Amino acid sequence: MSRSRFGRDREPRIPRGPGSLPVTPRRPPTLPDPPDSVMMFNYGPTTRRRIDMDTRDMKFIDPEEKDKILPSARTARRRTIRPPEDEMRQILQVKGVDLHIAENTKAHHTDKYEQTEDRKTDDGKDESAELVVRRAQTFDLTLTFDRPFQADGDNIQLIFQIGTMPRPQWQTMVTVPVKQAGTGSSDGTAVSRAWSATIKSQEGNSLLVSVYIGSDCIIGEWDLAVYSVMHKSGERPKIFAYDHPDNIFILLNPWSRDDTVYLDNQELLNEYVLNDTGGIFVGNYKQFRPRPWFFGQFEDGILEITLHLLRRAFGYRISTAMADPVQISRALSKMVNANDDRGVVIGRWDGEYSDGKTPSSWTGSVSILDQYEKSGGAVKYGQCWVFSGVLTTVCRAIGLPARSVSNFKSAHDTDGNTTIDRHIKFDENGDVVFLNERDKDSIWNFHVWNDAWMTRPDLPEGHNGWQTIDSTPQELSEGSFQCGPSPVAASKSGKIHLPYDTPFVFAEVNGHVVYWEMKSDTEWKQVHVDRFEVGAYISTKVPNGKALTSLAWGANNPDREDITHLYKHPDGSPQEETTMAEVTKQLELGLKYEQPKKEVTVRLQDIVSVYAGEEIQLVAIIDNNSTKVRNVTVGLSATTTTYDGVGVKDIATMNFKKEPIQPGQSRRVELRIGSDKYLGHLISNGSITVRAQGRVVETSESFVAMDNFIVKPPELSVEVEGDVYVRKPFKLMISFTNPLKVPLTGCKLELSGPGLMGRTFTIEPRQVTVPAGGRFSESLSLISRKAGVKELVVTLDTNELPDIFGMKAVYVYF
Asked: CA 20 to 30 Å from 455, out of 39, 386, 686, 720?
């Protein structure tokens, strides 16, 4: 009997999560009673269990859900009747089943899952190998009997079932007759895409059987039984059932043309299914870089947690929707966030994380999913790149090709009109006043979602391929915080009527910013439309199947692929104008794009690079475009903001009164900000937003310009001492220099990487405080369970400075 660390075959823990219930272990369920026309006998192992809702699901149930859910999750048992000895001697008895785990997993591209090997857990327990295969493909098994199989007299059937009450009509029970070669198709391409079993060879008492898994198979943990059927004249047929003790995990198959997730490019498959490390781009449109992330979809237990999330999404039942990538991806986008359905991660953006973990301190998905499973409750805290990283993990775990996608200057439309509405008024001095309390829409420095690859038989032609899904809880969709799948092609073409949530996704990359002037409490006038403010440098990791190689800032990072062209036409192009005209017509927006030319305009000089501890110099240039002298009043201000555009702290303000500017000339005004003004007010992945605004004295005409920039943190140096060998301790050295004029306090390290003993480490280093200008240094002793190239990801969390991280690719020898 195989065991897993995720609740299989062990006494359940008393859950610590809110609303969880201590549970009594359930007896192993078996098949329902056969119809009266058949007599059923059992022999062989009886320790097998079936997964529908078990102890792992039970501990996540709220008390008020108990009475509603538990009656439908009862255990069905089959009567165990020992057959007469004379009939046992006549019937072809199964003595054993060999699932050929090593050979099958290699053929199915599942040999990287840790559970496919006999192994010892980190706590010293032995785990036996389990079979993980993909649907729409054959796998081999050997049936060993007590005598040679006779084709003209023996009747053997393979019974696959999933859930506590499997039924053929629910696609949760499949009967597969074992046939001679040539009597049925088993390749799924010529005659049928349904399940089949064909004898490949016979040697003595053993049959080598090739089993084709139906292309519309529900994904999950399936049971296998072998039936020997005896027919005697004048008697009811008798079935002698051998229950195989181990489960078979069946996943989606992007390698098979018969699967709706088929992806015909091995390089892309190496990245979007098989790569367990990578990077997620963060920053703003001028300054961004990849953040290393350990997806860890092959780590022991991650697949089982993912399947638990699917069962939970569908009401703790095995659903036919669990065969459909459209419904699977939508369900996972709901379950990764914890805003409803008691999912995995709680989002928080206000900077207060004292009762959890700072979002920037996470190094990957494995530690998050581990904590979710162990605690029985949601994990604190995450933001968009965390949600996306976890969603990439669970999608890849089940065979759904997926990637994390970063959109810079990403819009958040709250009312479904695809525009980002900003509201202003003019005060008694003629100065612009931003009515932030009325602005429900926003523009984030960046936002990270996911693309998942699938066909869309539910949509018109031309919408297969990449589909946007998003697990960050932003807006309700059909009553839940879920988003997608929305065809990427629909966002580009403006077909916002196509499901799911396409208007929201369209606005994120193509929305126009509309400024409304308040004339009275009930009257608003459109004064400006910015067509090109939203959606830039849409980025994902280059699909090479390898680890990150660079943490360099900017669009030319060698690990970055620009996919903006997939989501939108070039700004200002005829195609873009056609798309926007169509959307505007569909929504009856009535926007006016012709803008009057202004006599005086203002522009902010780009701040390309500021490192933590450096002085900031803001420069605004006011241009007089008229033929007359103009006197202007100008104000410069700077505010630290979260990455989703919410102000945190006003750090500097300066006003310039009645500055005269000659016709056709410009005036330059400056504001310098010392590091003491912004340190301590920076938020993870946040920025400093600067604004220049003013008015012309002679005409009362107003002008405004806004921009933001990132204060770049130092990078951790991560090095390894000597060569690294499997299951041998090695030393990892972490260091950096504090660039600030103040100490860094509350230092904590987090480290993760594939195949590490211990999986993920949170460490309070010897140096909890790093002096101003001082050197931080820490060494760790680690052990790797696996050979090959492994990327280690390290973050350093401090009270004063967020987003300090580094990485190291390590080759581990046998």
From this structure: 386
Burial of 638 (0-12, 13-18, 19+ CB in 10 A): buried
Q: Which two tokens stand for residue 614?
A: 């450096």
Over the Cα atoms of the chain, what is R_g?
Answer: 31
Pairing verdict, β 748-752 and 724-725: unpaired
Q: Which of 734, 793, 739 is nearest to 770 (CA)?
A: 739
Active site residues: 384, 447, 470
Burial 301-323 (b: 16+ CB within 10 A, else e): bbbbbbbbbbbbbeebbbbebbb
Residue spans of alpha helices (H) in 210-355? 266-272, 302-313, 325-335
Rounded Cα distance, 86 and 533, in Å? 83
Is residue 181 classed as helix, strand or coil in its secondary structure? coil
449, 485 contact by CB (below 8 A):
no
Q: How far apart are CA 390 and CA 353, in angstroms?
A: 19
Record the tokens describing residue 266, joined without a space.
Answer: 């091995």
C-alpha span between 803 and 795 (Å, rounded)? 7
Those residues whose C-beta lies under 8 Å from the C-beta of residue 122, and which sit 6 or more positions away, are 757, 758, 759
Distance CA 718, CA 794 (A): 8
Q: Rounded CA gap, 365 and 380, in Å?
A: 13
- The phi and psi torsions of 418 (rounded to 5 degrees) equal 65, 5
Short-list 419, 565, 420, 416, CA closest to 497: 416
Helices marked H in 552-682:
564-567, 574-587, 675-678
Tokens 């046992």 belong to 88
Closest CA to 218 of 113, 298, 131, 325: 325
What residues have CB less than 8 Å from 573, skipping those under 6 apart?
none
- Residues 415 and 723: their CA atoms lie apart, in Å, by 57
DSSP 188: S
Which helix or strand (DSSP H or E) is residue 90 part of? helix 85-90
Distance CA 421, CA 423 (A): 7
Evaluate whether 441 touches 611 at the Cβ level (below 8 Å). Answer: no
pLDDT of residue 595: 64
Kindly tell me the number of DSSP H helices and DSSP E strands found in the chain: 14, 44
At 650, the amino acid letter reads D
Give tens-digit pLDDT for 705-762: 889 899 999 989 999 999 999 999 999 999 999 998 889 999 999 999 888 877 778 8
> CB neighbours of 174 closer than 8 A, spacing ≥ 6?
159, 160, 161, 168, 195, 214, 217
**Among all chains, which residue has been given the structure tokens 């409490």?**
521
In the chain the first and final C-alpha atoms are separated, in Å, by 29
Residue pair 43/145 in contact (Cβ under 8 Å)? The answer is no
pLDDT tens across 661-697, in order? Answer: 999 999 999 999 999 999 888 888 889 999 898 889 9
**Angle between helix 574-587 and 502-510 (nearest 10):** 140
Asked if omega into 381 is within 30° of 0 (cis), the reply is: yes
> Cβ(105)–Cβ(133) under 8 Å?
yes
Residue 674 CA to residue 681 CA, distance in Å, equals 13
* CA atoms 207, 212, 217, 220: torsion sign: positive
Q: Please return the burial class of 430, using the count of CB atoms within 10 Å of its CB with bins 0-12, 13-18 and 19+.
A: middle
